[in-house]
Design a protein that fits this description.
six-stranded mixed sheet; elongated; 12 helices; alpha/beta; 6 strands; 11% strand
Length: 283
């Protein structure tokens, strides 16, 4: 398979998992390269996601590494054989690669958990809300840049469609619900949209009210995506340089802990729904 000039986060993750298996086996890259009748350079490319890998090779490597986790091996083999284009591929070369990576990660996730403090979560934003957010960026984006970003954000809602929508839980701070990113009409429509998604069963939403004591998680912002097996769970964190993907177990454990801490500080789902409903009536 020819080298990729710009591998996706999912392709990189497959390479990372193969490297972890090799390191756990105690084998050097050059030793495995000799076993495959390959080179150390080709091994590096495969483990970096730059070079593709077949299902047969994944299974052969797993056996060579003495990995006995059949579910995990099957999940890696599935990652190696995925060739179909996703809807997000239509935005390749139009939007930054990370936007496509997030959409692909959400598409393959078995569940999603998210914490958002300052904005309504992207998966629950209306077009007008998203347009206002993107339009406020500095330097200001031209319309030709804003339009595909809004379309892409709306496209991410595909996870809620079909016979088996992806379970989605989010914790939102009251601040995100009260800030008017545009006019009052946009805010009213945004709150109604969230309530509709709750009623449809698409989203489980909990709210952290301003008056909640002991809440020191104002800087919390994360998405936790369940993998086809727990070893393939993924975390997303905002950073000064953009979105970062996390896959180390220590990082994932930290994100799970943070989510549950914020969840404990929130109202339950029923009270949260009533809270959003009252807020919508106030506007």
């Amino acid at each position: 398979m020819p080298p990729r000039s710009n591998p996706t986060a999912r392709q990189v993750r497959l390479g990372v998992e193969l490297r972890k298996l090799r390191e756990a086996s105690g084998l050097k890259a050059r030793e495995v390269a000799a076993f495959l009748n390959s080179t150390s350079g080709q091994m590096s490319q495969m483990e970096a996601g730059i070079a593709g890998v077949s299902e047969e090779r994944v299974r052969r490597l797993a056996a060579h590494y003495a990995c006995a986790d059949e579910e995990f091996i099957a999940a890696l083999a599935a990652m190696a054989t995925e060739r179909a284009r996703g809807w997000w591929d239509d935005y390749r070369g139009v939007l930054p690669q990370v936007n496509l990576d997030v959409a692909e990660a959400e598409h393959h996730a078995t569940f999603l958990r998210e914490v958002v403090i300052t904005y309504v979560p992207g998966l629950l934003q209306t077009p007008d809300y998203a347009r206002a957010v993107f339009g406020f960026m500095r330097p200001e984006l031209p319309v030709s840049e804003v339009v595909p970003r809004v379309e892409h954000r709306m496209g991410r809602r595909a996870i809620f469609e079909g016979d088996t929508p992806t379970p989605y839980e989010t914790v939102i701070h009251e601040m995100a619900l009260r800030v008017h990113v545009a006019d009052l009409g946009t805010s009213r429509a945004q709150l109604r949209f969230i309530l509709d998604r709750i009623e449809e069963g698409c989203a489980s939403v909990r709210v952290v009210p301003f008056g909640r004591e002991g809440f020191a998680g104002a800087g919390a912002s994360l998405m936790y995506l369940g993998g086809s097996v727990p070893r393939l769970d993924t975390g997303l964190r905002d950073s000064p340089t953009g979105v970062e993907f996390c896959d180390a177990e220590a990082q994932l454990r930290q994100l799970r802990t943070l989510f549950h801490k914020v969840e404990e500080a929130s109202l339950d789902t029923s009270a949260s729904r009533d809270f959003i409903h009252r807020l919508a009536k106030e506007l």
